[in-house]
Amino acid sequence: MKINGNYANIQQSYLFSTVAAKVKQYSQEHPQADIIKLGIGDVTLPLCSAVCDAMHAAVDEMGVQETFKGYGPEQGYGFLKEALVSYYAGKGVTLMPDEIFISDGAKSDLGNILDLFDRDNTVLVPDPVYPVYVDTNIMDGRRIIFADANESNGFLPMPDKDTDADIIYICSPNNPTGAVYNKQQLKAWVDYALARQALILFDAAYEAFISGDLPTSIYQIEGAQECAIEFCSFSKTAGFTGTRCGYTVVPAGLERGGMKLNKMWLRRQTTKFNGVPYIVQKGAAAVFSPEGQKQIRQNIAYYKNNAQVIARTMRELGIWFTGGENSPYIWLKCPGGMKSWDFFDYLLEKANVVGTPGSGFGKNGECFFRLTAFGDAGRTLEATERIKKLIKNDFRG
Amino acid sequence: MKINGNYANIQQSYLFSTVAAKVKQYSQEHPQADIIKLGIGDVTLPLCSAVCDAMHAAVDEMGVQETFKGYGPEQGYGFLKEALVSYYAGKGVTLMPDEIFISDGAKSDLGNILDLFDRDNTVLVPDPVYPVYVDTNIMDGRRIIFADANESNGFLPMPDKDTDADIIYICSPNNPTGAVYNKQQLKAWVDYALARQALILFDAAYEAFISGDLPTSIYQIEGAQECAIEFCSFSKTAGFTGTRCGYTVVPAGLERGGMKLNKMWLRRQTTKFNGVPYIVQKGAAAVFSPEGQKQIRQNIAYYKNNAQVIARTMRELGIWFTGGENSPYIWLKCPGGMKSWDFFDYLLEKANVVGTPGSGFGKNGECFFRLTAFGDAGRTLEATERIKKLIKNDFRG
To answer: Which of A267, A288, B264, B342 is most buried, by CB atoms within 10 Å?
Structure first.
């Protein structure tokens, strides 16, 4: 029995475990310290009442023979796919229900979609990045190259016509940098992909944080339906990180190697997946009710307000950053040229504030740092006051 | 961009769609016909009240900030893993919580586990069989060989020492045949796997239908912890086909190629999966409460009674069959040497009863036929009365 030897090549990520260990040690040594965590990448507000009401009703349906639901369609119920068709119509994007696949989350689909592609493909991944793009391709043994995201391009790398890539990851709004591509920039990526028959895997998990004219779907870009698959999720949109629902759009006309990717993904999902719980799909559909939309928009506004409080602090301190406007993340340049982990220790010890070292997301993350807006509003404000006082004193005094 | 060309080799299964089309056509041509479906492979009884109560409580928790749950452990909550440790202890099997991985169902895990294995392995699959074992391996391009299940071995093929297999699928109680291996038979498979360092993928999805002394877990067999991964599900145990929860056991000591498969699977799941909804895990845990056990046992007894009604009919008619005792499936030999699809048409037209042609599950299924016990008790009895009358008249008259 031969195992998949590529697993031996995956680097263990110690980012969040090291953060946790350092915070634990500091707390033990300083039991009086009032630590504020701005490193958390998970939502904290509860599910809105429209979603809970829909799930209660669905549980009741499941408890009665006449309304009980057994196996559903692997690709999701029509009621949820139709709600998403309408949601996309609101973005000016026309989709057919069969182009939408409901799943248990974007993370699953971003990994599982690779089943459809040969190992002999070159994958282009931005650096810094959400580690899952890299690890899932290492597991398959694909060649990975990186697109440098850095201060000079505002952490929004653009295509280089001399780079040969077959599969391209784009995450906008970006995790961890919070940077968002505009339409012109995304158009350049779509044109690049079309020119070489490459495929874009577009991670739109944070699209609900975008205000104004920036693209919230790759399909708002002409030509994207011929070169892109889009992944999205209710996790950050509606607080579903522990409730698990996402969706993937595979355009009907998208072909590579003479095969329709939509049919391939349907085959993959009907063979290796059995759909999302009926109860959860009913909850997800309630997100699109008028009441649900109002409630989730309130939650997003709450997080965005936290982001703006942090962003304002950075501006006031003259610290370079991305994100904070259309994203729950603020990606800042460590003051005084500090390295990421040094700044982590400095903030923890001097302000009792916890963030995430940027170097944990890739080599270009060194000397950068991520703060998140998913915390409590009052605590976030308190944390920024402490940061302001500390940095003004040490660096801008 | 190169796609995974193996997808072109997967045969489209028309089994259930052809059954549906034939039934639809017959209904249209005979609108007065009172058709009884004994072909359904899905549960029909609603979720029990212990499960619904637990899910209602969990929805309430999700709606309040203090008890809201975001990301949970990808491999499942401790409360559910501990409940399963106790459940296995009741079978005489000692497991550690870290050996259990909660998932959205056995189908997902049976497909996804293949990520851990090289493509260069020979896979041994019984014929007839649940089609997913074959399709998922074709997707990866593995060599597949078959173990012949037939009347002479009671549809329970035994290992052949001259067969070189690296990965071995065993499903007991079997879908579609309902046949169940005894301990001695499973021991022969474990010994075969140990002797050649092969790996058994043991599908125990129907274990809850077993009464008496037959093994309900491969780990009841000595040595299995060194050669087997077990997949199980709440789908048929507790009616979770539309609620989605299963679990996979990967023993801590199980190694191949110098790698611990438990660590590999943990890495796979933490990278490509984000766990099962908290609400669903709370529902699944309630299955193990005293009230939950009582309620699900009642439901299983209901289905098993249906199975016995069908089995009794076959015995009375002198028709050879497997299953029906420790399984919701009855796998019968078509009377008069009829082929599977001919018997399907015959039963539909002459008795207005729908079943599933055995030939749809593999070449050895030809001339066999599957009836299932998941229907209504009264309708199942009515169907057997019709079958009895018809076959007595045509074949035993």
So the answer is: B264
